[in-house]
Amino acid sequence: MKIINARVFIDGIFVSTEVQFDQNGIVAIGNNLPDDEIIDAGGNYLYPGIIDCHNHGGWLRAFQYGEEDEFGTYEDRIRFLVEKLPEHGVTTVFPTLSGTNYEIVARTVRELRKIRGKYEGARLDRFQFEGLYPSLKRYMTEEAVNPSREHTDCIVDNDYSDVALFHVGPDLEGAIDWCDYMVSNGVYPTVGNTEASAEDVFRAADHGLCQADHMFNGFKAMHHREAGAAAAVMYDDRIKAQLTCDGYHVDPLWVRILIKIKGLENVYGVSDMSEASGLPDGTHVVNGRRITARDGFIYGEDGYIASGNMAINEVMKAARDRCHLTMEEVGSLYCENVAKCLNITDRGKIEVGRKSDLVIMNEDYEALITIIDGKVFYHR
Q: Using CA atoms, how far apart are residues 175 and 366, in angstroms rounded to an integer?
């Protein structure tokens, strides 16, 4: 099968070419490729399937474990999510687990391992753990503990084969030894939810810390007399930075400043969807709390923003329209840089030999066709 009449995103630019693929992967890129099965993109845009590497859930369902509710069992909710995400161009998702209720996080790991690969849809990939070892006061709870290999071993049942990123406050006692241990297990230590100084971050980077949670959010506010963690991430080329480009979580100017300082290739876009994301405008009740969805964001009863309300393709549109990034910059951030910054080599780029995970989008980033492992999974 081949896709024709598409503006194909490859290496940061759009090119006019055809892409041929089968269920095993992308087999050829070029013009006038012989093939009897054709998808005509109609002049729309062809991107690699989106890797949403920071996603807590959506549409009132969460990746974090919970008992049966009006949406069915936990497994029912996970099935819904993996089937729903391709409607937004997502072909791979990293379930992102958070908080200091360590028993729930560990239960989630066990339950998701049973479900992974069971249903067609967005691929349930490796875990990202956020906020389990925070040092920023607003994330601290009485249950919070300092990082240690023994504690983390218990959370993942001594199995790190499906763990991608694990967040830590590098200023916490034991953080440096813990970073060494994560690296030895193939895990990326990630700075976030922290009051760390720049020196704390640099020291952790000497021991393998190489990723930053959604930049500026979950970091102590910057001050010109104090070099904190956010400044360290901007300065240190060893650290790749996640970024939310919905135009509110990070001011559009700061989005462009971060890209200018670190270089586009060292920044990658995330959705940071929560279970409250993806709702229609109006008032809803989530976990007993009344919230309001408006203009792409979720607000609590106090009027303050509680979370974003955008799926990742909608964040891409906001990155262009609110943050004033070019379509090439948006494509790099959300469609190629995730694989590049996380050293994923089997997908996340339109290249011969990679998985045939592809998405055709229109100019407003609406997913028209989503292809997973060479099969059309979603057709708008």
A: 42
DSSP H helical ranges for 71-144:
74-84, 102-115
What tokens does 102 get? 């360590």
Question: Cα(35)–Cα(3) distance, rounded to whole angstroms?
Answer: 10
Q: How confident is the model at residue 160 (pLDDT cuts 50, 70, 90)?
A: very high
C-alpha 341/C-alpha 265 separation (Å) is 8
Q: Are residues 160 and 154 in contact, defined by beta-carbon separation less than 8 angstroms?
A: no
Question: In DSSP terms, which residues pair with 163 in a beta bridge?
Answer: 127
User: ∠ at Cα 338 (266, 207), nearest 5°?
Assistant: 60
* pLDDT single digits (tens) 22-54: 999 999 999 999 999 999 999 999 999 999 999
Confidence class of residue 294 from pLDDT cuts 50, 70 and 90? Answer: confident
Residue-level pLDDT at 229: 97
The span from the CA of 104 to the CA of 143, in Å, is 12
Residues 55-81: pLDDT tens digits? 999 999 999 999 999 999 999 999 999
3-state secondary structure of 362: coil
138, 139, 143, 145: CA torsion to nearest 10: -110
Answer with the residue of higher pLDDT: 29 or 288.
29
| Domain-wise residue ranges, the chain | 49-276+308-348, 277-307
User: What are the residues whose beta carbons fall under 8 Å from the beta carbon of 324, sequence distance 6 or more?
Assistant: 252, 256
CATH homologous superfamily, domain 49-276+308-348: Metal-dependent hydrolases (3.20.20.140)
Q: Helix or strand or coil: residue 368?
A: strand
Token pair for residue 98? 């958070």
d(CA 108, CA 103): 9
Burial class (CB in 10 A: 0-12, 13-18, 19+), 101: middle
Of 88, 77, 97, 171, the residue nearest 367 (C-alpha): 88
> What per-residue confidence (pLDDT) applies to 295?
82
pLDDT (mean) for 80-94: 98
For the sheet with 289-294, list strands across it.
282-286, 289-294, 297-299, 305-308
Query: Is pLDDT above 90 for 268?
Result: yes
Residue whose structure tokens are 């270089």: 263
